[in-house]
Each structure stands twice: as structure tokens, then as C-alpha cells.
Design goal:
Helix content: 25-40%
Strand content: 25-35%
Shape: globular
Protein name: VOC family protein
Strand order of the largest sheet: 1-4-3-2
Pfam family, one: Glyoxalase
Number of helices: 4
Order of helices and strands: EHEEEEHEEEHH
InterPro entries: Glyas_Fos-R_dOase_dom (IPR004360), GlyoxalaseI/FosfomycinResist (IPR050383), VOC_core (IPR037523)
Radius of gyration: 19 Å
Length: about 180
């Protein structure tokens, strides 16, 4: 018994149409499906919703719910805004820069390029306030992932005991944090 892949990941949005248009314009995602009901199929709760699905590439699906009868959506006040995010892979650094320039030209504030050694990222927010990351692999990604694989269990065990960042892979963000 094994999970095959993620079927879709769903988030709430403030406005379904705005969300479809924004992801289409900003990230070139195709709108692939909409489902709307007045009752929730799983709970049978009376609650109208619009559920939309976007093509996030390579068989990945990003979905959103607009819930017009519910209180305005908010954020978890105890979790920093940089923690919860949706990350998408792009082909290479040239593509990452192209997206950065496209987003900025369309009025989106973009943070980065951030150097994570194994990959490089930009960050921004969608119209509903979800943090989005675009990441491209570093040319040396495979070798660095092997180094990280060698220490992952030791890091996890040390973290579990101490709740302090283990230094097994401190090289990972050394260049970025020296800035």
C-alpha cells in the first residue's frame, strides 16, 4: 500500500474569478475544472461553494474554494507568513528570472532571488494572501541532495532532542545568510 501522488491541494480564496484570472496571467496556469454546489458532498452541510482547479504542470493540480457565506478568511496569527506557502518548480534560473520580471511588471511585489544552495527561489503573494514560491534547481542540486540525504536522520534526531538547529548542513544557507 503506497500513495501514488498528490491528487490536488486545495486552499480557500477570496474571489474565484479573480483567482483563476490571476493564476492564469501571472503563472500561466490553465483553468481546468469548476465544481459548485449548495451542499458539501462529504458532510451534507448546506453551504454554497465554488471549487476550482488549476493546472500546475506535470499532472499537478492546485485547487481553491470560494466560500461566500463564511466569515472572511484570515491567517493563523501564531504562524509567521513565510511558513505556509505553495511552492512550484520552474525549469531553470533563466525561467525564474523571467517570472520575476513578469510578476514585477504586473505590479506584484517579489522577494528574492533567495539562494537555498540546492535551489533558488522567489516569493510573492496571490490576491487571497497565500504566499507563493517559484523555485529552480541549482546545477549542483543532485550532489547537494546526496549530502543532505546522508545527514537527514541525524538532524531529525538532534532537533527532536534539542529543538535547536543542527549544524550538519549549515553550508546550505551560508552564502545567503552572509549577505
Amino acid at each position: 500500500m503506497k500513495i501514488e501522488k498528490i491528487h490536488h491541494v486545495a486552499y480557500r480564496c477570496k474571489d474565484a474569478k479573480e483567482t483563476v484570472e490571476w493564476y492564469g496571467k501571472m503563472l500561466n496556469m490553465d483553468f481546468i475544472l469548476a465544481i459548485a454546489e449548495d451542499k458539501v458532498p462529504s458532510t451534507h452541510e448546506p453551504d454554497p461553494y465554488m471549487h476550482l482547479f488549476l493546472d500546475a504542470g506535470d499532472g499537478n493540480v492546485l485547487a481553491f474554494f470560494e466560500l461566500p457565506t463564511k466569515p472572511e478568511m484570515g491567517r493563523d496569527p501564531n504562524t509567521p507568513e513565510w511558513v505556509q506557502h505553495i511552492a512550484f518548480k520552474v525549469k531553470d534560473r533563466d525561467t525564474l528570472i523571467e517570472f520575476k520580471e513578469h510578476l514585477e511588471a504586473n505590479g506584484v511585489d517579489v522577494l528574492g532571488v533567495t539562494d537555498h544552495s540546492i535551489f533558488h527561489s522567489i516569493y510573492f503573494f496571490d490576491p487571497s494572501g497565500h504566499r507563493v514560491e517559484l523555485a529552480c534547481p541549482d546545477p549542483e542540486e543532485e550532489a547537494m541532495l546526496a549530502r543532505l540525504d546522508d545527514v537527514k536522520w541525524d538532524m531529525l534526531e538532534e532537533w527532536s532532542r534539542t529543538k535547536k538547529a543542527p549544524q550538519h548542513a549549515d553550508w546550505l544557507h551560508a552564502k545567503e545568510l552572509e549577505k
